[in-house]
Design brief:
heterodimer; A: about 300 residues; alpha/beta; Rossmann fold; 6-stranded mixed sheet; 4-stranded antiparallel sheet; 8 helices; B: about 450 residues; alpha+beta; Elongation Factor Tu (Ef-tu), domain 3; 7-stranded antiparallel sheet; about 35% strand
Chain lengths: ~300, ~450
């Protein structure tokens, strides 16, 4: 090494590794939130870098709305298996059955419903910490988030009363029933994530690349047409989220820029075949990543309100 | 802004009092450096109709929470990210109200550079001195004094010089910034932020962004003395892979200096001397590693080492003591209580500690220390004596930010109540160099 100097990705990486090791050392029962999306893909590589040659000392946890892209589920399961990690999945449908959550009348998106399911999973497994892939550049409320974000026994975030975070000294102390959300990618931008995926040659689900898909126009976005309802014995999980006869439907070459579920993810028209294409597209983009998320469009404070209630 | 090639990262924070225009300045940097996206501009324009009487309010970019927009203030540290072809930037927007000094310490503790905003009409006020003092106390290498709202004093060079003189008067009291820049600007109109102003022909320095892109930060990290706080003992428990059976690594982030394979080191507090057998990383073994890299060290001898121990080089040994002097910034409504037990987190260990005396407190009008104040209240900064339940291995904060700093945590509530900076050790640790013998 000729010069003792880290470039920006190396700096972000060492910062994130430090944070992950603090979690492993300070908490009794941490979990890592892994959805199969691009940010949590980076988290997995960082976990490998933090803990190898040992096993990654925490299970992976994912909350399904029931509206997921099948490609994402396949990828998630495969990746967890490759890494020899235990994957815990909890679903909104199960939560309905158990009475933990209830469908909101008139509301098709189950984004909000992930909150009680996540909190119930944290309680079920007595997790005292959950590592997530959220980044501060995503959204204005996230910009005020700490690396170690304290949640009270109701899972709530209190933005006005956050623990000051100084140097690299993270206060990880929680009382029983409370927990911590930890965000190693806090300082990463969307571009950093793709640069890192490229540098580390990480596999990503194929829906990040352009493919042909039937989409319909809603709320200024192109939403994917949900898979057909085949099992007539059950209610249609996509009821209300299917194109109406008056909606414009078209087959297009498109990809996702950020992944929520099929109801909240706007598809963007794009011809990207490689990670380099995606990096080129992101650097030329004129809207923010979350501009393609229907869940954030509800109001200017949509994310703030969800985080206060226990969202990650 | 394409930057898929390695570039440098600069972290800075902005501080000033209410209405000095901090959020406007950051908004201006983002706007003029073309770091804003269409939906952000659209949201800005939407909110302009409500609050700005039609004019875009750049402060709305950073005042993110609903509570803040309603009150028109910034209530917490907000982080922003932007990039130019020359550098990437992490901005901590730290509020200026007196009661939020703790947020400035939070936002500034990891910064390379601090921007202190001064309203050209008001000149130097208590907040200016406070923020400059805190930047110096935290050991931030680079300082920018942004003299803002120059348009409201008709761009008069005399006014700029007057404020500059007053600040240069008290700067020597504060100790060593590596460099200090004074920049006349109007963040609202964009003068000297990204583009040069036509109103300041008398100003020969760089624009703010020009300075941020070029200020020399390569030597901001401490590369002189090796310090490695052990963070996590890496011991694979993998019955199927025999090659890992004997693997015992010590994982952590290098707090300062450089370590080489084959180098002799001392493990503290045990005082045992051994050799670095391997610098293990996921990407392969390294011949040497440096601050702030994360690595896993394998040592020649199987010594009992745990989290909180420190591995150091043979030269310039740190101190070791349970009686410590420090300066502390108090961060909680409940004032510091002498005789009460706190948790103290230093590097990777947490010990119990008692503050035995509050020796002095800074008066921000005079920047003088007032003796025997009795206690420290929220946002006070003062000198204290601490006794810890277990000796700490440490350096003075002025030579090592990471092995010379600590936080105090209130027992029961677990709140972070203080940020401390240690005075240099009175003497270096004297390990009994019994070389490890089996």
């Amino acid at each position: 090494m000729s010069s003792y100097h880290l470039d920006h990705l190396q700096y972000l990486e060492t910062e994130a590794i430090h944070v992950m090791r603090e979690v492993a050392a300070e908490f009794e029962r941490p979990a890592l939130l892994f959805s199969g999306g691009k940010d949590s893909i980076c988290l997995l590589r960082l976990a490998e870098k933090a803990f190898r040659p040992s096993d990654i000392p925490m299970p992976f946890l994912n909350v399904e709305t029931g509206h997921e892209f099948p490609e994402l589920i396949e990828f998630r399961d495969r990746r967890a298996k490759q890494l020899g990690a235990k994957l815990i999945v909890r679903t909104v449908d199960e939560a309905f059955a158990k009475g933990i959550a209830h469908p909101t009348p008139g509301q098709v998106s189950r984004n909000q419903l992930q909150i009680p399911v996540l909190l119930a999973a944290i309680e079920e497994f007595q997790f005292d910490c959950a590592i997530g892939g959220a980044r501060r550049d995503e959204e204005k409320a996230r910009a005020k988030e700490r690396f170690f974000s304290f949640r009270d026994s109701f899972g709530q975030w209190d933005p006005k009363n956050q623990r000051p975070e100084i140097w690299n000294l993270y206060n990880a102390r929680v009382n029983p029933g409370e927990n911590m959300r930890v965000f190693p990618l806090s300082n990463w931008t969307e571009m950093d994530v793709w640069d890192y995926i490229k540098k580390e040659q990480l596999e990503v689900p194929n829906i990040y690349f352009s493919h042909e898909r039937e989409c319909y126009r809603k709320g200024g976005q192109w939403l994917p047409v949900p898979p057909p309802h085949t099992d007539a014995t059950k209610p249609d999980p996509y009821e209300g989220a299917r194109p109406k006869p008056t909606d414009t439907v078209k087959k297009m070459i498109c990809r996702v820029r950020t992944i929520a579920d099929m109801i909240s993810t706007g598809m963007i028209e794009s011809k990207t075949e490689t990670i380099d294409d995606i990096i080129g597209e992101v650097s030329a983009a004129r809207v923010t990543e979350r501009g393609t998320r229907a869940d954030d469009k509800a109001s200017e404070a949509a994310m703030e309100d969800r985080k206060k209630a226990g969202y990650f | 802004m394409p930057h898929s090639h390695p570039i440098e990262l600069l972290r800075f924070n902005t501080c000033g009092s209410v209405d000095d225009g901090k959020s406007t300045l950051i908004g201006r940097l983002l706007y003029d450096s073309k770091s804003l996206m269409e939906d952000q501009v659209e949201a800005l324009e939407k909110s302009a109709d409500i609050t700005g009487g039609g004019q875009i309010n750049l402060a709305n970019l950073t005042d993110g929470l609903r509570a803040e927009r309603e009150q028109g203030i910034t209530i917490d540290v907000a982080y922003r990210y932007f990039a130019t072809p020359k550098r990437k930037f992490i901005v901590a927007d730290t509020p200026g109200h007196v009661q939020y000094t703790r947020n400035m310490v939070t936002g500034a503790s990891n910064a390379n550079l601090s921007i202190v905003l001064v309203d050209a009409r008001q000149g130097v006020i208590e907040q200016t001195r406070r923020h400059t003092y805190i930047a110096a106390l935290l050991g931030i290498p680079h300082l920018v004094i942004a003299i803002n709202k120059m348009d409201l004093v008709d761009w008069k060079q005399e006014r700029f010089q007057e404020i500059r003189d007053e600040i240069e008067d008290f700067l020597p009291k504060l100790g060593a910034f590596r460099d200090v820049k004074f920049i006349p600007m109007s963040a609202l109109n964009g003068d000297n932020v990204v583009d040069f102003s036509k109103h300041t022909p008398w100003y020969e320095g760089p624009t703010l962004l020009g300075h941020l892109e070029t200020v020399h930060i390569a030597s901001d990290w401490n590369m002189s003395t090796f310090r490695f706080p052990v963070q996590w003992v890496n011991r694979p428990n993998n019955p199927t892979d025999k090659s890992l059976h004997d693997f015992r690594g010590l994982s952590g982030q290098i707090a300062s200096g450089i370590v080489c394979k084959g180098q002799q080191v001392v493990v503290l507090p045990a005082g045992i001397r051994t050799t670095v057998k391997d610098i293990w990383t996921y990407d392969g073994s390294l011949a040497e590693a440096f601050c702030p890299q994360s690595a896993t060290l394998c040592l020649e001898h199987d010594i009992d080492i745990s989290r909180g121990d420190m591995i150091v080089g043979l030269e310039n040994l740190p101190g070791r003591s349970s009686e410590l002097s420090a300066r502390v910034c108090w961060m909680n409504q409940r004032p510091l209580q002498t005789g009460k037990k706190y948790f103290l987190k230093h590097t990777t260990q947490t010990v119990q500690a008692v503050v035995t005396a509050v020796e002095n407190k800074i008066n921000f009008d005079t920047l003088e220390a007032v003796d025997a104040p009795g206690t420290l209240a929220m946002n006070d900064i003062g000198g204290i004596k601490i006794r810890t339940a277990k000796p700490l291995v440490f350096d003075g904060y002025s030579t090592n930010r990471l092995t010379g700093s600590f936080i105090l945590i209130e027992q029961g509530t677990n709140l972070t109540v203080g940020a401390g900076m240690l005075a240099p050790p009175l003497e270096a640790v004297k390990p009994e160099y019994s070389d490890f013998a089996i």
